[in-house]
Amino acid sequence: MAGKEKMLALGVYPETSLKEARAHRDDARKLIANGSDPAEVRKAEKITVTEERRQQSEAEAIERMTQVLRELEPLTGGGRYVFPGARSGTRPMSNNNVNAALKRLGIDTQTELTGHGFRAMARTIIEEVHGFRPEIIELQLAHAVRDPLGRAYNRTKHLAERKRMMQVWADYLDELRDAKNVIHASFGKMA
Questions:
Q1: pLDDT per residue over 33-77, tens digit each?
Q2: Fewer CB within 10 Å: C terminus or N terminus of the chain?
Q3: Which residues make beta-bridge pairs with 5?
């Protein structure tokens, strides 16, 4: 190609038979005769297959999320939000709603824990205990992580790693619920 010799793998023996290797060779020769680089054609095909798989994975994720939301609908009232505000279903639940629930549980939201504290705690544990990269965590927490060109992130970016991270987090919460890796102690109010 362009006056330079290029090598092209035709397959790995014994997975690729001699007959198949010869057919690949003949296909490559036809591409060269038509002015195409077989390596570039193969690379473009791989990109296309990868993109098709990503789109399929994305479609499956959307389908599953839709199914989960439909299962939650009887519990949430079928409004726009899974967690609607206390006064109006036209707005999402606010941090104040979560803090009010914590107060009803006897938690002092001024000195002990806030609704936003759960997010901060989760982010810290996911990064420091489970070793996930901060940008993956921030993508999942729906914070607009910008790329070097200043564009807001793609909501489907790193979907497989984010899915794995959420499973690790769910398993961790299950362990806590089941009292694994938990130190039981009695903490009284501090004076």
A1: 888 888 888 888 888 877 787 777 777 877 887 888 888 888 777
A2: C
A3: none
Q: Which long-range contacts (CB under 8 A, 24 or more apart) does 99-103 make?
A: none
The domain in which residue 132 lies consists of 109-177
* Phi, psi for 28 (deg, rounded to 5): -65, -40
Q: Which helix (H) or strand (E) holds 124?
A: helix 115-128
Q: State the total domains in the chain.
A: 2
Q: Is 95 within the bounds of a domain?
A: no
Rounded Cα gap, residues 81 and 70, in angstroms: 12
How many Å is the Cα radius of gyration of the chain?
A: 26
Three-class SS of residue 119?
helix
Q: What angle do CA 63, 119, 135 make, to 5 degrees?
A: 70
Checking phi first, is residue 84 left (phi over 0); if not, alpha (psi -120 to 50) or beta?
Answer: beta
Distance CA 72, CA 133 (A): 30
What single DSSP character describes residue 152? B
